[in-house]
Amino acid sequence: MTSFASALHVARFDDAAFFAAQLFYESFAVAFPVPADNCGFPFPTPTRNWHQYVAFYKWPDETIEPVGFCNWIRYDNVYLEGGMCVRRNFYRRLSKEHWAECRAAGGVAQLMMERAALQLNDCVAWFGYCGDRKASIVDARAGYVPTRHKFLIVKWFADLADGERRTLEDKLAAIGPF
Asked: Distance between CA 96 and CA 82 in Å, rounded?
């Protein structure tokens, strides 16, 4: 049997709808966040600023299944992370060996964030909104910390003075959930 690490592949797409729209809908019961120049935020969202990651798992029968998704949108000198989801029944279907390896690695969501951090680190910070207890635990392992704004979390990539951090946090909190 191959290792879990060999069976899981995380890939970046400009638009991952083909691979992840069904997974996203199953997780949130809303339409997939298709990259668009004007997606409803109070700032421009050109499609070149969208970065969507999908985790694919290769089953022993060679079937490849999208099992995780997350979206990042570049805004000024930060990325807004949202839409993190993992197929609900994925972990239950893993072999005991792969489940143990996956758990030791932090799980699919953490692995997607780690992969994205290797590529999307040309910024001051990542910001996200998180009100889910389990997701908060994973986000913390990935380096996120709470801000003084309810549900707004941040992963710092640059060393900024406290005042600069608070100003940036206030700016992102004013956008609302993303």
From this structure: 30
- CA–CA separation, 51 vs 101, rounded Å? 27
Question: Domain limits of the chain?
Answer: 4-173
pLDDT in tens, 49-68: 999 999 999 999 999 999 99
**Token output for 95:** 């072999």
Q: Which fold has domain 4-173?
A: Aminopeptidase (3.40.630)
Cα-based angle 169, 142, 59 (whole degrees, multiple of 5): 135
Structure-block tokens of residue 167: 């100003």
Strand 78-86 relative to strand 125-129, pairing: parallel
CA distance 141 to 94: 22
Q: What is the separation, in whole angstroms, between the first and last Cα of the chain? A: 40
**Residue 129 pairs with which residues in a beta bridge?**
152
Tokens, residue 13 = 């797409």
Taking only the tens place, the pLDDT of each residue in 74-115 is 999 999 999 999 999 999 999 999 999 999 999 999 999 999
pTM: 0.95
Which strand ranges, in their side-by-side order, compose the sheet holding 8-13? Answer: 8-13, 50-58, 64-75, 78-86, 125-129, 152-156, 145-146
pLDDT of residue 101: 98
